[in-house]
Each structure stands twice: as C-alpha cells, then as structure tokens.
Design a protein that fits this description.
Elements: H1 3-31, E1 35-38, E2 46-48, E3 52-59, E4 65-70, H2 72-83, H3 90-112, E5 123-124, E6 128-130, E7 135-137, E8 142-151, E9 154-163, H4 164-170
Antiparallel strand pairs: 1-8, 2-7, 3-4, 3-5, 3-6, 4-9, 8-9
Helix pairs in contact: 1-3, 2-3
C-alpha cells in the first residue's frame, strides 16, 4: 500500500467507514433492503446530485457537507415501507417522500458521524432536501469524497464535501 492509499485508508476508517457501515445496516435492518455492491471511494472534480438528495452539514472541529442521494425507485420503496400499507393522497405522498428522505439521512448521519481529529462533539444541521438535480463543482479550497451503494431498487450516492485544508492536514485525506 503506497502512502496515498494509506492516507485514504485512514480517512475511510475514521470518517467514512462508520457512515458507510450505517447506510448498509440501516437499509438491511430497518428497511430489509440489501446493499449488494458498494463502489470504491473516489475524489471527483464535480458531482451531479440526484433529484432526491438530502444535505446535512456538520459543525465543530469537522466541517463537512454530507449528502445522500436516492434513486426514485429506492425512495419509493422506502416510503412504501414507512407507510406500511396506509393509504394517503397523492398530495400527501409528496410530503411523505420528502420527509422519509430527510428522516433516513438524518438517522444514518446522526448515528454514524465520528470525530477522529480531537474526539470533541460534532453537531449536525437539520436535513435539507434538494428537489432538483444540481452539480457541485470542486473549488480549489475544497475536497470531495464519493461512494455509491447499489440495491435491487436503485442506488444511494454518499458525498462528503469539506475544506481542502481539513481533508489534507487534519483528516490526512489526499485526492487521487
């Protein structure tokens, strides 16, 4: 393993691995949805967010924006599971979809975020739903980490965006 791979491994272990693990356990334990493949962590120059993407920010000694983007079919399946056979109007269904996306993201990130820098508390912002696809472009002072989870109902895309200095100096994460 070269030095860059060691740094990515350390970052993965300390910051992303708990989130990656929680995505998988949440889907399996709470939704009975198996994740049958997970991509490698990449560091793209830009990220095209899915139509149903939820953003949560962290504050404290780790400042990140974390997103989970859901494929339409997967989000529909999660809504079906949340509703458990309850009939609701089409208008209410739209609100429920938004709420489910935010609740799932909040639960996953809230249960998984860890602070490998100084073990101080990390606070998360309320979830914000991005309802139309957007592209995040990497600025010179930022870094992206990106991973995809694949289920039989579609994908979830996890993105962590943070200051370049934090990724390189504090989290020891170097871009490919």
């Amino acid at each position: 393993m070269n030095d860059e791979e060691k740094v990515i491994h350390t970052y993965t272990k300390d910051v992303l691995l708990p989130i990656i693990k929680r995505v998988k356990t949440y889907l399996l334990d709470e939704m009975n949805i198996d994740v049958f493949n997970t991509s490698e962590i990449t560091c793209p120059k830009n990220i095209h967010l899915k139509k149903n993407t939820v953003m949560i920010g962290t504050t404290g000694s780790i400042k990140l924006i974390i997103t989970l983007g859901f494929d339409e079919e997967l989000l529909n399946k999660m809504v079906e599971i949340f509703l458990d056979g309850e009939n609701i109007s089409e208008y209410d269904l739209s609100e429920v979809r938004d709420s489910v996306a935010c609740e799932v993201t909040n639960t996953i990130i809230g249960n998984a975020i860890d602070n490998p820098i100084d073990n101080s508390d990390i606070y998360i912002t309320p979830p914000v739903l991005v309802c139309s696809a957007k592209t995040l472009n990497k600025e010179k002072n930022s870094k992206f980490a990106f991973i995809t989870f694949i289920t039989k109902y579609g994908e979830i895309e996890l993105t962590a965006v943070g200051p370049k200095e934090q990724f390189e100096n504090e989290l020891k994460f170097i871009e490919n």
